[in-house]
Amino acid sequence: MPEPDIALSLQGLTAGYEGPDVLRGISLDVPRGRIVTVVGPNGHGKSTLLRTVSGLVRARSGRVLVGGAEVQALAPHRIAAAGVAHVPQGDLLFPEMTVHENLMMGAYREADAGVIEARLAEVHALLPRLRERHRQLAASLSGGERRMVGIGRGLMAGGAILMLDEPSLGLAPLVIEQIYEVIGRLREQGRTILLVEENPARVAELCDAMHLLDNGEIVWSGPPAELMDRDELLATYLGG
Q: Would the keyword Nucleotide-binding turn up in this protein's UniProt record (predicted)?
């Protein structure tokens, strides 16, 4: 069988803030058109992993390759230009800007008005609530609507890979279901996604591969269904 087309490859990635390493020797691949999920307890390096890929945290060693090109030494805006769209944990919107203005901020690198309009139409088709709320200030939105704006802004960037950091965090169960329905539609569209989530059950049917991160190291990798059958592993690292 031919080798899969790898959109993102992490090879021996080590990173951290001041003090000890937070990530230690992380290696994983995200094939193009697939959803790969990193799960693990809170505070064990999942968000740091995405922040390192996008250049917000500088890698201490190892490599980050986007489409085969090394990017770990680049500034964040250049990594974004290479095709990495990062939707961070929480809302992090511009609260005094409208929904439309927030979405347009995602397309700041694109100069072609036709491309921007096409992306906006795709976002509105995927997230029709954002069309309804396009003149509304972000500060006045519900938690679920803010999360949708964050995802929409990431899609407006037009990157080759979309990184989502715990999109369900802090939301009511019904809203979580809606958010993951959106991610399911992105899967159907063939989007490439690196997803961080604490609860593997939420994403087991959506993703193609799963990596369990604990204390900055990947302790298990494999098909999602296999992890869901490993009760002892789930109990040890995720509490059940």
A: yes
